[in-house]
Amino acid sequence: MSDECKRIKRAFETAESALIVSHLDPDGDSIGSMLALGRILSNLGLEADYYSEDGVPKVYRFLPWADRVCNRVAPDKSYDLVITVDASDIKRLGNKIVLSEVGKLIINIDHHPDNTNFGSINCVHLTSSTAELIYKLAKYFELKIDTEMAKCLYVALITDTGNFRYENTSKETFLMAAELIEAGISTHEISTKIYDTRTVPMIKLFAAAMGTLETSENQKAAWVTVTQEMLQKYACRSEQLVGLVDHIRSIAGVEVAMLFREEKDGVVKVNFRSKDKVNVSEIAQKFNGGGHVKASGAVFHEPIEAVKAKVIAEVLRHPS
């Protein structure tokens, strides 16, 4: 990625303003990469703004600079640079921001295989996470990775590799993690903040969601459903449930797992996970979603039962 780094370096050196943008329904990689990149820009003398249409999930708000992330851009505001992180397609950024209106130059930094290369500069590589690309940028700029930047990068790394369990984990991933630990982070503290802070209502909601478990006739596909009524009953937010789909994937014999989440205003979000035989990115793309071969998502604007019917039918068309 040396050629891209050179172009990015020139863009960073000539810009006087920058906006870093995460994708909808942001995960740890998107938030961690965004904040770490902001630290890189700050070290280079350029203070960036941060934008996420859906804000920062509560579980990641302990990260440094997370309180600077906004969910709106002033109508008359424009930037020399707009940098998108962890977004495979411009549609993944939401409909409240039009990149061509707010940015003169678009830099697209991502690791998804289905990236549409929508940027003026595209730094797209199949690494474990977008954080791995941000880390390589920091190394290219010969910047010291301090504890705060390391914390952001580590959160991004562990959440996108499933704590180093997924196939996207490589030797380079572990070498990067080792350097982040050397920078002074506490892996125990970070893991505790992400994975050990569930409340009693959240556990009750998990139990209720598990009670909706359904499977295909051959039990190769399994799914759970969370409605607005359930969320309101337990006073929880939909974003707190994303990890639930990984539990469904863990069922012996299941090849495709799905989580159907009913949001407000008629929005339904679907999270897909797979094991070895099904490319769920292809399934998500049929519904204008996307992601990875084994972890993808899509957003719908129709009733949840209609969404379930069409999505499950599509999944069952794929041999597993």
From TrEMBL:
<dbReference type="GO" id="GO:0003676">
    <property type="term" value="F:nucleic acid binding"/>
</dbReference>
<protein>
    <submittedName>
        <fullName>Uncharacterized protein</fullName>
    </submittedName>
</protein>
<feature type="domain" description="DDH">
    <location>
        <begin position="19"/>
        <end position="156"/>
    </location>
</feature>
<dbReference type="Pfam" id="PF01368">
    <property type="entry name" value="DHH"/>
</dbReference>
<dbReference type="Pfam" id="PF02272">
    <property type="entry name" value="DHHA1"/>
</dbReference>
<dbReference type="InterPro" id="IPR003156">
    <property type="entry name" value="DHHA1_dom"/>
</dbReference>
<dbReference type="InterPro" id="IPR051319">
    <property type="entry name" value="Oligoribo/pAp-PDE_c-di-AMP_PDE"/>
</dbReference>
<dbReference type="InterPro" id="IPR038763">
    <property type="entry name" value="DHH_sf"/>
</dbReference>
<dbReference type="InterPro" id="IPR001667">
    <property type="entry name" value="DDH_dom"/>
</dbReference>
<feature type="domain" description="DHHA1">
    <location>
        <begin position="236"/>
        <end position="305"/>
    </location>
</feature>
